[in-house]
Predict the 3D structure of the following.
Amino acid sequence: MNGGPVGFDPVVFRGPALDLFAFLQYLLPLALLQAYFMAQACANSALRYVVAGTLVTATVAMGIGIVVATRGMWLPHMGLWAA
């Protein structure tokens, strides 16, 4: 629709979208760790359940991403999976 990728230049692989992703790949895990520590120190069981659910959801999302990346990027180049 727009004629090309938005947020980065695919030739030199630079751009604001990639800078944002590079920043968030450190910020998001640190935020989850901070939430875990806060829930661990808190007596509120509802907060603990919310943080536990968030961690489970993040773990499942990472697992799905690992499987998709493995099937799409690695196994076809190894001759083990047809994409």
Q: What stands out?
A: The chain has a mean pLDDT of 86. Residues 16-78 form one domain.
